[in-house]
Amino acid sequence: MTFSILGARLVSPHDGLDQTADLHIEAGKVVGIGQAPVGFHAASTLDAGGLVASPGLVDLSVALREPGYSRKGSIASETRAAAAGGVTSLCCPPLTRPILDTPAVAELILDRAREAAHCKVYPIGALTRGLEGEQLAELVALRDVGCVAFGNGLNPFPNNRTLCRALEYAATFGLTVVFHSQDRDLALGGLAHEGPTASFLGLPGIPETAETVALARNLLLVEQSGVRAHFSQLTSARGVEMIAQAQARGLPVTADVALYQLILTDEALAGFSSLYHVQPPLRTRSDREALRSALKAGVVSAIASHHQPHERDAKNAPFGQTEPGISSVELLLPLALTLLEDGLLDLPTLLDRLSAGPARALGLPGGRLAVGTAADLVLFDLDASTVAGERWLSKGENSPFIGHCLPGAVRYTLVDGRVTFSG
Amino acid sequence: MTPLDAKRPLQLNDQGQLRHFLSLDGLPRELLTEILDTADSFLEVGARAVKKVPLLRGKTVCNVFFENSTRTRTTFELAAQRLSADVISLNVSTSSTSKGETLFDTLRNLEAMAADMFVVRHGESGAAHFIAEQVCPQVAVINGGDGRHAHPTQGMLDMLTIRRHKGGFENLSVAIVGDILHSRVARSNMLALRALGCPDIRVIAPKTLLPVGVEQYGVTVHTDLAQGLKDVDVVIMLRLQRERMAGGLLPSEGEFYRLFGLTTQRLALAKPDAIVMHPGPINRGVEIESAVADGAHSVILNQVTYGIAVRMAVLSMAMSGQAAQRQIEQENAQ
């Protein structure tokens, strides 16, 4: 199969590329930028004048809900939604039922993802069996079937010695550990950022220290064990400051934030809408500004959707009885373009944080657009707009952005040169 | 980006009248004063030999209590009965939810029985908002206490008590003492006092029992009882739950009483004509000395009496506001 995309603005920050040129694809790979290679004949062409072509987005956290939570989503439905958001590669967290702590579960996910063929899926395995923090999962066996990193989600380790050993074991084999830093006890029973909004609403608070105390411990143990670490879903100004300090010390740690944390604050909770119930919680304006600055500076090198689809019933109760999470992957690109609209980042930097940045953080292929790389890309129209929810592919309708008019519109998503979404 | 549903006045109808009573947040002073004036007129009903007015005749009021309560539920029942409504009281903590029914389904079932009004108490903050917004917007919803968030009829009955004993709010100093953090009564009182123009609202508690950012209510914070009580006109004591000793919020009931308990001696620091209030049930010897609870300054039992009148006022106002809204919506639909 040969294929040419004509006249798009090609933007790939990792490759230093930002020019309007033709892109030539053969057998799922980019074979030419600008001039077609000698002997290349395009079987078909796509006129992409006026569109931006970027490396396909790489999303470090998309809950696919399969196996185990088919009411909330399936591998087919959620990877399809991801393709609509411009995503070509994604990582799925280990909180499935059964937990992703055995090669069998990883293989099942990978098989179904291949069958669905909407996105490349890279599972994150459980660091401990059942995510219980007691006994290590078979990390090497999981790596061998395709797990790219290991984490324990928000599930705490009951003791620091086990955590320390888990990190040392992972370090032995050069594995990457993903941390969600939230101290169990400081966050216990909490539903919202501990601050004036939660106090006013009478919602039990989760203090900023729930993040920073856990983060401080995790950073020290990472330094001691020498494990490669990625810090996911940071929420606080102090938290990103600690990551910046660790990086300045030379610790090779990376970090991501949830896209919604860059947009929403805890003020959204007034009115008790369960759509804003997330864990870790939405924090203050000044936290949001610090997350934005850290993203701009590159301290935070990845934006992730932290997509958590839910069935309607999961959100249909008083705030404290609802399940946390936002269904967000489907809007990843248009929602991220609000950051461009706000003047926070230029387009190449934004696209870097959505593609090459996350790919580098977990050592994934993807995030590039150069001769020889896989033809994973997204073509979008910067001048058009997307009415969120007009079309909805995820099983989870739990998005507070539905109804909003967002900048930009995804026109085509391609994985290995094959169109996985067109809109 | 602002949420689409931000700051919609959920509890008011298109003409600015009450259609639900969920929280005192955002209610204008005139409306609060109207509630107090209406309650004043109902107090006279309670003093008559025949204690009934026909305002809610033919209407069905459902008391749905997901948390135990004696005083609040009983006074709501009496209020509805004195307005001639048919009243059903359900103690849901011991019935359907234990069979796994969700709040949504419980309320929908009651709505199907043609209830016109729900009085709801629930342990989750925001439960009344959820019911009014998501479950049955056509039924008037009265918040009988939701989690730590609000207890607006208690707030208003406290205001009625203060107004009847002090004449107004403009020159008053009011101290709220005790477990502010977990108290929906404290939150509703702070909002009401501020909205009604009280210039000096003080909260007195150790840091472990104060919500972060309590200053947003326009209050001054004291951690010393003697200092906080100086020259106040009104002392509102809060109930201290036994379970607060676990988890490190307080060392013991004894130490709390030593530091924050209201004794005759400490009450002497307040103005000579100060009144002492408590939402009940009181813990004698934990937050309040018996001599104070039963003494000349105490208006704790008056609060209970006024509670019926305030609830009559709120029930009748919300029922008429909800009916008016339904009529407007029907006309618009036609």
Q: What's the CATH topology label of the largest domain in chain B?
A: Rossmann fold
Provide the helix percentage of chain A: 25-40%
Mean pLDDT of chain B: 92
List the total number of helices of chain A. Answer: 12
Distance between the termini of chain A: 22 Å
Tell me the overall shape of chain A: globular
Q: Report the sheet with the most strands of chain B, covering strand number, pairing sense and barrel closure.
A: 5 strands, parallel
Beta strand count of chain A: 18
- Unreliable spans of chain A: none
**Helix and strand pattern of chain A:** EEEEEEHEHEHEHEHEHEHEHEHEHHHEEE
Strand elements of chain B, count: 9
Largest sheet of chain A: 8 strands, mixed
> Radius of gyration of chain B, Cα only, in angstroms?
20 Å
How would you portray this structure in words?
Chain A: Keywords: Hydrolase, Pyrimidine biosynthesis, Zinc. Chain A: It holds the Pfam family Amidohydro_3. The complex is a heterodimer of chains A (423) and B (334). In chain A, strands 1, 2, 3, 4, 5, 16, 17 and 18 form an 8-stranded mixed sheet that branches. Chain A has an 8-stranded parallel sheet with strand order 6-7-8-9-10-13-14-15, sandwiched between helices. Chain A has a two-stranded parallel ribbon with strand order 11-12. Chain A has 2 domains: 2-53 and 373-384 and 407-422, Urease, subunit C, domain 1 (Roll), CATH 2.30.40.10; 55-362, TIM Barrel, CATH 3.20.20. Chain A has 423 residues and is of the alpha/beta class. In chain A, helix 1 (75-84) packs across helix 2 and helix 7 (208-225) runs parallel beside helix 8. Chain A has helices at residues 75-84, 103-116, 139-145, 160-172, 184-187, 196-201, 208-225, 237-248, 285-297, 332-341, 347-354, 356-362, and strands at 2-12, 17-26, 29-33, 44-47, 52-55, 57-59, 87-92, 120-126, 149-151, 176-180, 192-193, 205-206, 228-232, 254-258, 302-304, 377-387, 405-415, 418-422. Chain B folds into 2 domains: 29-151 and 305-333, Aspartate/ornithine carbamoyltransferase (Rossmann fold); 152-300, Rossmann fold (3-Layer(aba) Sandwich), CATH 3.40.50. Chain B has 334 residues and is an alpha/beta fold. Helices cover 40% and strands 13% of the residues of chain B. Classes of the chains: A alpha/beta (423), B alpha/beta (334). Chains A and B meet through helix 6 of A and helix 4 of B.
